Recover the amino acids of this structure.
């Protein structure tokens, strides 16, 4: 039994390390940080003029992403590349042209829910709901 638990734990650690490497490859500004309430690896970033944020990898295999004050154009470009050109249906120019306000989305595949706060200064705060 001990060998099985040790094996499982080793695979779990490898899973979390791989997830952490994937996030830092996609977002090079992320660096390892003190863990938060998620009980798994935590990555944070702060770049003047580009915002700040964190990614928490919890002990259930989920990632929680929170970004603050990111330029709306950067978020719009990322959304277009990840989800395709017609994903944001609240404006013909896509999310990069979204009016200030709060936008909610639900991913029917993963059941994830997203909240985007578009600020009047052209930045976005993004977090799961």
């Amino acid at each position: 039994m001990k060998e099985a638990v040790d094996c499982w734990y080793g695979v779990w650690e490898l899973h979390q390390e791989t997830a952490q490497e994937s996030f830092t490859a996609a977002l090079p500004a992320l660096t390892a940080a003190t863990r938060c309430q998620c009980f798994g690896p935590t990555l944070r970033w702060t770049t003047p003029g580009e915002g700040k944020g964190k990614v928490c990898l919890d002990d259930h295999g989920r990632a929680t992403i929170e970004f603050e004050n990111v330029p709306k154009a950067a978020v719009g470009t990322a959304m277009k590349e990840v989800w395709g050109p017609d994903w944001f249906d609240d404006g013909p120019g896509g999310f990069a042209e979204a009016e200030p306000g709060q936008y909610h989305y639900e991913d029917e595949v993963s059941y994830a829910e997203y909240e985007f706060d578009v600020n009047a200064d052209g930045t976005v705060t993004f977090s799961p709901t």
Remarks:
- The chain has a mean pLDDT of 82.
- The first helix runs from residue 2 to 26.
